[in-house]
Amino acid sequence: MPREDAALPEFDRADCPKGLVTRRQLREMQLSPGDNDGPVAILRCKLCALRPQWCCRHPTRGFLLRVDLAKPKRVPSLAQEWALDRAMAARSTCPQCERRYWFCLPLRTQGSCDPCARGYEPSLDTYVTPAATPGHRLAA
Ligand SMILES: [Zn+2]
Ligand SMILES: [Zn+2]
Question: Ligand 2 centroid vs 97 CA: distance in angstroms?
């Protein structure tokens, strides 16, 4: 099939316009296709450089996407939040009374919360009560 009849414009690696990259290059740039809803051009394979008049139908051709439409890869924010929450929980939960406080505990030096270390009842507003975290409890 002559190159002129190709559905998408084709470029050789040497004359590939700036702003067009393959999916793989996009991945390497930590980008996702974003608003690209399909390839806008074809990066011809090496073989085709020798036959510029023919369109590339070879398996090693690359599909080119527009960098300006690409978006930064979405980070798994929920997983990140959980990891952060676990880390926070570890630092604010007393291993003795298993209360989780609103602040970090001196676990490295004291090993427990102040009330455990000194033997008094913590006031209600210093630790997380089950009612304060309805998301962690199943509705009755
Ligand atoms: Zn080719
Ligand atoms: Zn405690």
Answer: 4
C-alpha angle with apex 38: 35 to 39, nearest 5 degrees?
115
Let me know the angle formed at the C-alpha of 57 by 56 and 62, rounded to the nearest 5 degrees.
Answer: 70
The answer to whether the CB of 113 falls within 8 A of the CB of 96 is yes
Give the ligand with the smallest distance to the CA of 11: 1
pLDDT of 85 higher than 90: no
Rounded to the nearest angstrom, the distance between the alpha carbon of 39 and the centre of ligand 1 is 16
Give the closest ligand to the alpha carbon of residue 101: 2
> pTM of this prediction?
0.52
- Number of the ligand closest to the Cα of 121: 2
Instruction: Give the tokens for residue 30.
Output: 């930590």
Helical residues (DSSP H) of 1-76, grouped into ranges? 23-28
Distance in angstroms (rounded) separating the CA atoms of residues 62 and 22:
6
Asked if the model's pLDDT at residue 130 lies above 80, the reply is no
C-alpha angle 55-63-35 in degrees, rounded to nearest 5? 135
Place of tokens 């003795």: 96
